[in-house]
Amino acid sequence: MRNTATDWARGARRTVVTDEVAEWASDSEDEPPDVDELDALVRAFRSLPERWQTVLWYTVIEDEPVGQVAELLGMEKGAVSQLAFRAREGLRQAFLVAARGDVRNARSSPPSSPRASAVPAAAQPCPATAP
Q1: Residue pLDDT, tens place only, 5-54
Q2: Which domains are seen in the chain, by residue range?
Q3: Predicted model pTM
Q4: How far apart (Å, rounded) are the C-alpha atoms in residues 56 and 73?
Q5: Rounded to 10 degrees, what is the CA torsion of 100, 105, 108, 112?
Q6: Distance between CA 50 and CA 30 in Å, rounded?
Q7: Contact 89/100 with Cβ under 8 angstroms?
């Protein structure tokens, strides 16, 4: 009986909507998407290796669980997770390149590690002075 009364009391509470939430809810979702951004995203996705495209399609677009994608691709779960991580990072890098409009570098390989992308170009050795 005590739980029933508590449930009724909780159910009777009113939700207070702040101005910020009301403004967010009233925003029109009918706004057209940014065509340049979508175009850059498509170019970036198409510039990725086929394996990366496949794993991104299943894990992000189709929202399939890693275990099911692993079965589809004939891989271990851990391998699919790692491949998806690398593919997302590669897509991020390719999108940044495509968004700048530098199409000739869109197929360049992503950094070998996340830390490599954090090193500014000025801090990397010059090819002429590299051993």
Answers
A1: 666 566 555 555 566 666 766 666 666 667 888 899 999 999 999 999 99
A2: 33-111 (1.10.10)
A3: 0.54
A4: 12
A5: -50
A6: 33
A7: no
8-state DSSP, 105 = G
d(CA 125, CA 130): 6
Q: Which amino acid is at 126?
A: C
Distance CA(46)–CA(56), nearest Å, equals 11
d(CA 97, CA 31): 26
- Residue 86: is it exposed, middle or buried by C-beta count within 10 angstroms (0-12/13-18/19+)? middle
Q: Which residues contact 41 (CB under 8 A, 6 or more apart)?
A: 95, 98
Length of the chain: 131
Quick check: 67 and 25 in contact, CB under 8 A? no
Q: 49: which 2 tokens?
A: 């290796």
